[in-house]
Amino acid sequence: MQVELAGLSNGACNFSHEYTTRELALDDDRIVLAGAPRVSGHITRTEHKVVVEGEVAAIAEIECDRCLQFLELPIRSDFRLEYITANTYRLLETAELAQEDMTLSIFNGEFIDVDDMVREQLLLAIPTQAICQESCKGFCPVCSADRNVTDCNCNAQEIDPRWSGLKKLVNRTS
């Protein structure tokens, strides 16, 4: 979905769109969109800047980082993005950039691509570590058994062989 900036009445407009799950690819193999992503927001244009504010929501299916079972993760993110023209950016480059200028994006032409913006916001809203439940035990590091399903008899205190020399020193001094 693209918003044509030249057609904005009074320099502003509202937008909303509900995507199909196939319409918006996240380009991340570990994430599958389970529900239809939705975006709604408001675009304001001034002479040199475009401000896009809104909300994106979706349901993602992602693997638990401990046990690899799929879990549904509701995603909701509010955003405020600022875009400036390439000419305006060139003028800012010669001046000293302030902290708030570091969040600016550059746009060329008369369109804002909402799809890219939604994709970016969804990826940013997904946690770096997804856990199906706080009590998830994950896999046994020795035998790879799913410890949520079965108990294994592996020694949980097995020491990494790279540290075995230190164990000998500790035993000698004890």
Low-pLDDT parts are: none
Number of strands: 8
Number of domains: 2
Largest sheet: 6 strands, mixed
**Strand and helix order:** EEEEEEHEEHH
Q: Can I get a quick summary?
A:
The chain folds into 2 domains: 2-125, no CATH class; 137-174, no CATH class.
SSE arrangement:
Elements: E1 2-4, E2 12-18, E3 31-33, E4 38-45, E5 49-63, E6 70-85, H1 86-94, E7 104-107, E8 111-113, H2 114-125, H3 164-173
Parallel strand pairs: 6-7
Antiparallel strand pairs: 1-8, 2-4, 3-5, 4-5, 5-6
Describe this structure in words.
The longest helix has 12 residues. A hairpin with a 3-residue loop joins strand 4 and strand 5. The termini are far apart. The protein has three helices and eight strands. It is 18% helix and 34% strand. The model has no long low-confidence stretch (mean pLDDT 79). It has 174 residues and is of the alpha+beta class. The strands form two sheets. Strands 2, 3, 4, 5, 6 and 7 form a six-stranded mixed beta sheet that branches. Strands 1-8 form a two-stranded antiparallel sheet. The chain folds into two domains: 124 residues, no CATH class; 38 residues, no CATH class.
